């Protein structure tokens, strides 16, 4: 990681409060939260949004995980991908579809709503706009709240990916990411594992 991890003994009161909340909700303070604790007020808001889109959104769990993988792949965020690829498959996203996303191919979904969701999210990420037909198809399945939650998920997971990539957060050398080699950046270029 490009920034040093904050020693709990060196944390101010607000950082300690945030670290306790994160550990209570997520089991530990790891990954991007080690970065965000440097700005505890931002960390507070980001953690709350992240908790909502991951655990409380109106979207089914499989689609919450799919939106995370799509944003991770869009930004080549290895940490997010590695942390969630198995969760997405366990939640019901077909392994073949996940593989296609990893390879920047065209995934196929058996479920009509999964395909509508994927195409809605893909257009946002890749084209920055959503075609009317794509919008209406997704709206039919998820309604206004689902679409708003989908955009919130993609925004949150994109911000997460930017944080992870910028600060080279725990690239998990024990897992092989499906992404292009990024070893030209920072410490990874020297053979370090990014931790």
Beginning-to-end CA distance, first to last residue: 5 Å
The shape, in one word, is globular
What is the number of beta strands?
0
Order of helices and strands: HHHHHHHH
Low-confidence stretches: 180-195
Total count of helical runs of at least 4 residues = 8
Helix content bin: 55-70%
Radius of gyration from the alpha-carbon trace, in angstroms: 17 Å
| Biggest sheet details | none
Given helix and strand content, the structural type is mainly alpha
| Percent in strands | under 5%
Mean pLDDT: 88
Furnish the topology, listing elements before pairings.
Layout: H1 13-26, H2 33-36, H3 40-56, H4 61-75, H5 78-91, H6 95-102, H7 112-127, H8 132-166
Helix pairs in contact: 1-3, 3-8, 4-5, 4-7, 4-8, 7-8
Structure, described:
The chain has 195 residues and is mostly helical. It has helices at 13-26, 33-36, 40-56, 61-75, 78-91, 95-102, 112-127, 132-166. Helix 4 crosses helix 8 (132-166). The longest helix has 35 residues, at 132-166. The radius of gyration is 17 Å and the shape is globular.
Brief summary of the model shown:
This protein has 195 residues and is mainly alpha-helical. It has helices spanning 13-26, 33-36, 40-56, 61-75, 78-91, 95-102, 112-127, 132-166.
List key phrases describing it:
single chain, 195 residues, mainly alpha, 0% strand, globular, disordered C terminus
């Amino acid at each position: 990681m490009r920034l040093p991890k904050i020693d709990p003994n060196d944390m101010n009161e607000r950082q300690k409060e945030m670290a306790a909340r994160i550990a209570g909700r997520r089991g530990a303070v790891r990954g991007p939260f080690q970065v965000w604790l440097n700005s505890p007020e931002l960390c507070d808001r980001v953690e709350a949004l992240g908790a909502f889109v991951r655990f409380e959104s109106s979207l089914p769990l499989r689609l919450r995980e799919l939106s995370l993988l799509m944003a991770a792949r869009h930004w080549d965020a290895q940490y997010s991908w590695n942390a969630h690829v198995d969760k997405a498959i366990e939640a019901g996203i077909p392994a073949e579809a996940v593989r296609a996303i990893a390879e920047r191919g065209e995934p196929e979904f058996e479920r009509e709503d999964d395909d509508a969701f994927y195409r809605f999210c893909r257009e946002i990420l890749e084209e920055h706009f959503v075609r009317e037909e794509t919008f209406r198809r997704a709206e039919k399945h998820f309604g206004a709240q689902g679409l708003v939650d989908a955009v919130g998920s993609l925004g949150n997971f994109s911000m997460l990916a930017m944080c992870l990539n910028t600060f080279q957060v725990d690239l998990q050398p024990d897992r092989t990411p499906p992404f292009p080699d990024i070893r030209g950046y920072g410490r990874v270029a020297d053979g370090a594992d990014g931790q």
